[in-house]
Amino acid sequence: MSTKATTLVYQIKITLRDSKPPIWRRLLVSESTALYKLHQIIQVAMGWTDSHLHQFIIENKHYSIPSPDDWEPMLDERHYHLKEIVPSEKYKFDYVYDFGDSWDHEILVEKILPIESGVKYPLCIKGKRACPPEDVGGTWGYDSFLKAMSDPNHKEHDSYFDPEEFSIEEINRVLHQIK
Predict the structure, then answer these.
(1) Omega before 87 cis (within 30°)?
(2) What is the pLDDT of residues 69-81, one digit of tens each?
(3) What is the CATH number of the domain that holds 64?
(4) What is the largest CA-CA distance in the chain?
(5) Which domain holds residue 106?
(6) What are the pLDDT digits (tens) for 6-64?
(7) Could you tell me if 16 and 105 are in contact, meaning their C-beta atoms sit under 8 angstroms apart?
(8) Is the pLDDT of residue 3 over 80?
(9) Residue 24 and residue 33: Cα distance in Å, rounded?
(10) Which secondary-structure segment (H or E) carries 113?
(11) Could you tell me the sign of the dihedral formed by the alpha carbons of 81, 65, 93, 173, in that order?
């Protein structure tokens, strides 16, 4: 691990694949962010509860916390940092959360910027729509869930969920608690 001070931040856009309309977040994260910390950041920014397994897929390599139960060789995400794996702007990689529901996210490095003095990173700067509730069956189950929410005769209609809800203030409040 380098002892060089962080001088760059990555502006990344995280998009939940197959979500219509799109669900996404735009974040600023330090170049020295380890993938494990990026996992925590994504959980907060997207609104997930970190109740399931996850992995990053970068150049056909899989990163997570290795387990004897892994089906494929797994690189330890705690030992890899963004500055080591992101070669340039416009670089894309995948983040998959909950292997049963298979919430697949595209991470796009939109810009690499100089760090701003006085700004606390990570920072969410924009986003759209609420994260789907856990365990609704992936994007296909989420579509069914939304139809149930809009049908006053459906048995789950009374479960309150606003798919348009998004609070950048709440996300940043929790992001700033990540150590």
Answers:
(1) no
(2) 888 889 999 999 9
(3) 3.10.290.30
(4) 60
(5) 8-130+165-175
(6) 689 999 999 999 998 999 999 999 999 999 999 999 999 999 999 999 999 999 999 99
(7) yes
(8) no
(9) 20
(10) strand 103-114
(11) negative
